[in-house]
Amino acid sequence: MTLLSTRRFLQIAGLSAASLLLVACGKKEPPAPAPVASAPAAAPARVYVVGTDAAYAPFESQNEKGEIVGFDIEVVQAIAAKAGIEVKFVNTPWEGIFNALAQGDRDMIVSAVTITEERKATIDFSNPYFDAQQLIAVKDNSKVSKFADLKKLKVGVQTGTTGDEAVTKLLGKTSAAIKRFESTPLALKELEAGGVDAVVADNGVIIHYVANNPGGKFKTVADKDFVPEQYGIAIKKGNTELQAKVNKGLADIKADGSYDKIFAKYFGAPPTVPAAATAAAPASAASK
Ligand code: ARG
């Protein structure tokens, strides 16, 4: 008798303790099932760490408060909201940014990263989210009118970018006339100071810098021989689960107009004609 009632007491006590706990947590969940190993609990919300080289306005930069802001940031935030994932942006130097991804220190890289065949060997990419092309910045009294004119000049680039690749191809691997900088704004400052004759970098960044530094007396020179580029969000090779989530989120923000809103905020008008198509390539060839 005594034994039975004790057990019964414990059962009741156990139950009410459980419900007390539920009340305390403020959760309206059904009573917890028996603790069997099979039932997978909802995984704790994981925060995806997004690396970005935040010296690349208007795509990513730091405001006066030190917050990382820009087109890329808003695109990834919108994608994350659709995909139901949490993201945190961490300023990461461009040199070594893909290493940080490979090492697992970053889950994604959003940094105006051009999708290239070479990079695809070691990195996975989301679907493209932006069309770009190289552009030349020179002083406004420069005689440069096309890319080939840079052959005999000193040219500034950001190390390891597609601009670096293009200039290396033109001037040769061992050329001492190529000045490599750790950021694109540093290369442009050197142009202003007269240390280089030209800078080659992504059109969006050059246009933004020239517009915001009228004192620098720059002009831009386009060349249709620069190949069309497309930005993608870089994801660790093999992480197909995250890649699928990001691609789904990207498709969603393109479908519901939120991508166009972000685009218009930074670039004025919605992306009607892809930059790749304007660059004289037939539309079909642009999406290789
Ligand atoms: N689009 C170029 C590339 O992928 C330059 C990107 C540089 N991005 C940056 N945030 N610094 O090589």
Task: Give a brief outline of the structure.
The protein is an alpha/beta fold and 288 residues long. Helices cover 39% and strands 19% of the residues. Helix 2 packs across helix 8 and helix 2 runs antiparallel to helix 9.
Task: Describe the model.
There is one protein chain. The protein has 288 residues and is of the alpha/beta class. The chain has 2 domains: 47-131 and 230-267, D-Maltodextrin-Binding Protein, domain 2, CATH 3.40.190; 134-221, 3-Layer(aba) Sandwich (D-Maltodextrin-Binding Protein, domain 2). Helices cover 39% and strands 19% of the residues. It is built from 11 helices and 15 strands. The strands form 4 sheets. Strands 5-1-6-15-7 form a 5-stranded mixed beta sheet. A 5-stranded mixed beta sheet has the order 11-10-12-9-13, sandwiched between helices. A 3-stranded antiparallel beta sheet has the order 2-3-4, covered by helices on one side. Helix 2 (71-83) crosses helix 8 and helix 2 (71-83) packs antiparallel against helix 9. It is globular, with a radius of gyration of 26 Å. Residues 1-6, 12-28 and 275-288 have low confidence and may be disordered. Residues 53, 56, 60, 94, 111-114, 158, 161-162, 202 line the site of arginine.
Primary descriptors:
single chain, 288 residues, D-Maltodextrin-Binding Protein, domain 2, 5-stranded mixed beta sheet, binds arginine, 2 domains
